[in-house]
Design brief:
Layout lengths: L4 E6 L3 E5 L11 E5 L22 E5 L2 E5 L3 H4 L16 H13 L6 E9 L1 H4 L2 H11 L1 E4 L11 E11 H12 L3 H4 L3 E7 L4 E7 L2 E2 L5 E3 L3 H12 L7 H12 L5 E3 L2 E3 L2 H22 L7 E5 L3 H11 L5 E3 L8 H13 L6
Parallel strand pairs: 1-6, 6-8, 9-15, 15-16
Antiparallel strand pairs: 1-2, 2-3, 4-5, 7-8, 9-10, 10-11, 10-12, 13-14
Helix pairs in contact: 5-11, 7-8, 7-9, 9-10
Bound molecules: adenosine-5'-triphosphate and magnesium ion.
């Protein structure tokens, strides 16, 4: 029997989603769009022309329309801020982003048998948040339509499993370095650096040790905010400006301009360590002793920023960092493995 298994990693910065099953060679068709879902104020009619040129879809939740998709930041009003707090996970925007992912994954049928999603370590400790996400994502969803003249499409999700995001990273990264069997019997530290958070999970095999897991808001955005505040403190919550600095940090050829002036990114790069070092120190206090840590896995879109600091914190250990181009998809890949396992598409 043919099953359909999918996964979505809804981060503070980007929504990552699978578009198919893992291939025999381990490739996963997947993509991402920003986790911004600006509300539309009076120009809901995508069909009417206002938003036609942008790659966004309108998602309606409780009578309100949200623009979701690769160009949602462009569609956002001038004064707009990203959600970087606990309310994100129970917000209508969170559900709108999930439905946007269902649209962009181009589902071949009307039923998804297995969907795996994740929550940060912190929110995963709250059963009410897990139950809320599971309730919201299960059952039938009306998919967004680019044009009101297109017929309404529904998709049913039979089973939703919520896992800690770092479990996805552990599954994917341990497979990637050929250590999947070994990690079952060893002590593993999995570190996920995203847009909003730095998360870590110490686990015996795949079983987390709660007292040695944690999360700080030490993701890429804290760096971007620090940089921008030294240029113009009034811009630290401006997602458009944060996006510019993020691009500038990733790509030395990208010219960052503020108020028409080009910003030299070089001094920021050298000052980054101090900001990130505080978050590493918090993680090291939570992990406690390091002598029993056998494997270290590092992933998430912000992983390259922390690599040298983590290496210094664990001098005699190899840090298994995901390749920069795929690092942000590590959680998703692990979720997809788990999603397909549930459907018995791959041997358990
Ligand atoms: N192709 C890319 N497009 C956008 N960002 C990228 C890309 N490649 C790497 N990045 C980096 O990845 C970061 C986002 O990482 P990631 O997607 O893991 O965060 P997230 O999962 O949304 O956040 P969190 O885990 O805190 O909820 C960006 O801020 C950017 O620095
Ligand atoms: Mg993430």
């Amino acid at each position: 029997m043919e099953f359909l298994a999918r996964a979505v990693d809804l981060g503070y910065g980007y929504v990552k989603y699978s578009k198919g099953h893992l291939s025999a060679s381990g490739d996963l068709p997947c993509d991402a769009f920003p986790s911004t879902a600006p509300q539309s104020y009076g120009h809901n009619d995508v069909d009417g022309g206002v938003m036609r040129g942008l790659d966004v879809v309108p998602v309606e939740i409780d009578g309100q329309t949200y623009h979701v998709g690769p160009q949602s930041l462009v569609a956002a009003p001038g004064l707009f801020s990203r959600m970087l707090d606990d309310s994100y996970f129970t917000s209508p925007q969170y559900l709108a982003l999930f439905r946007g992912a269902l649209h962009y994954m181009g589902l071949p049928g009307r039923q998804v048998d297995s969907m795996v999603v994740g929550l940060p370590v912190k929110q995963y400790r709250d059963p009410a948040v897990i139950a809320h996400v599971q309730r919201q994502f299960s059952g039938t969803h009306v998919l967004p339509r680019r044009s009101m003249s297109l017929p309404e499409r529904h998709v049913g999700i039979t089973s939703v499993r919520v896992v800690p995001q770092t479990v996805g990273a552990l599954v994917a990264q341990s497979q990637a370095v050929g250590a999947a069997d070994r990690v079952q019997h060893e002590t593993n530290l999995t570190i996920d650096v995203g847009y909003g958070t730095l998360q870590w999970m110490l686990s015996q095999g795949t079983t987390a040790v709660p007292a040695r897991c944690g999360c700080t808001m030490g993701g890429v955005s804290v760096l971007l905010q620090t940089m921008i505040s030294s240029v113009d403190p009034s811009l630290t919550a401006d997602p458009h400006m944060l996006d510019r600095f993020d691009k500038g940090l990733m790509d030395p050829a990208f010219v960052v301009k503020v108020d028409g002036k080009c910003i030299d990114m070089a001094p920021f790069r050298s000052r980054m360590r101090a900001v990130l070092g505080e978050h590493v120190a918090t993680m090291m206090r939570s992990v406690g002793r390091t002598s029993d840590v056998d494997n270290i896995f590092l992933c998430g879109g912000g992983a390259p920023r922390y690599l040298s600091l983590i290496q210094e914190a664990f001098p005699n250990r190899a840090v298994h960092a995901a390749a920069p181009a795929v690092s942000r998809f590590a959680n998703l890949r692990g979720f997809q493995v788990l999603s397909e396992l549930r459907c018995r598409l791959v041997p358990a």
